[in-house]
Amino acid sequence: MTCNIFTPLLLSLEIIQIAVVLAALFQIVLDEHLVKKALSNKKQQICNACTYKYVNKLMNSVSMNNLHDPEKAKEILAEGGYDGSTFRILAATLNKMDSMAVVLKSELEEIGVPVELTIVDWATLTDYRKDPSLYDMYITTFAEVPVPSLKLYYGNAYPGWSDDEKLSTLFSEMTSATTLDDAKAKWDELQGYSWEYLPIICPGHYLGMFAMDKDLEGVNMYSGGPKFYNAGIKE
Fold it and tell me: Cβ-count burial of 205 within 10 angstroms (0-12 exposed, 13-18 middle, 19+ buried)?
């Protein structure tokens, strides 16, 4: 069995001026292949976020995604009035997320942005991420969910605080839709707007592998599985 893990970078809303610029900038400076390589190991298979049908179609229509153009990135910083402030990245040692942070630091310093890393264990990160004064961006992962309404990062109470009015309206219209087709249409619109608002930045996905005995049944693999509360041995 496999479990698809989503690896986003979340931006704090209580943020210095640099982060407003970087929310758009990361799509240009980020070398996603280096970032995903830092996260990978022999037990994980990294897959490009663009391999998903919708995202692939969308990103082909967005000319400013994944260009890895440092000179263009420097132009955007200058146009946005970047003042040389330090950009703070919070990451945990879990699943080599700290290695991803090191690569991001290198990418940003290449274009003249000083970076401060805070590397902690996972328990500490889940505490620190509640305080937007401690970071400008943090790295985390999400497992797949059965329905889009369970994606935590679209909630204004989840660290990252996606409280944009249009984002909230689209999310509400999706969850209150009376037909599957109407809900799907709103979900497509919500995804499209997400690439403008950028509540998260997704460098890619990875697959966690699980093996189990053929006589084991009732294991729930949703949302990062495995969960064994209904599990049992076939008789």
Answer: buried
pLDDT digits over 113-143, tens only?
899 999 999 999 999 999 988 988 898 888 7
Report how far residue 53's alpha carbon sits from residue 187's, in angstroms, rounded to the nearest whole number: 14
Spell out a b/e string for 44-81, using b for 16 or more CB atoms within 10 Å of the CB, else e: bebebbbeeeebeebbeeeeebbeeeeeebbebbeeee
Residue 183's CB: how many other CB atoms inside 10 A? 18
CA atoms within 13 A on the CB side of 35: 26
**β-strands 216-217, 87-92: how paired?**
unpaired
Question: For the whole model, what pTM was predicted?
Answer: 0.74
CA distance 68 to 31: 5
- Predicted confidence (pLDDT) per residue in 204-228, tens digit: 676 667 777 888 888 877 666 677 8
Contact, 182 vs 189, CB < 8 A?
no
Question: Rounded to an integer, what distance in angstroms lies between the CA atom of residue 17 and that of residue 75?
Answer: 16
Please provide the distance, in angstroms rounded to a whole number, between the alpha carbons at the two ends of the chain. 22
Q: In a 3-state reduction of DSSP, which class is residue 33?
A: helix
- Tell me the backbone φ, ψ of residue 22, rounded to 5 degrees: -70, -25
CA distance 187 to 233: 39
- CA dist 111 and 71 (Å) reads 8
Burial of 225 (0-12, 13-18, 19+ CB in 10 A): middle
The length of the chain is 235
Q: For residue 86, what is the DSSP state?
A: P
Query: Residue 88's beta-bridge partner residues?
Result: 116
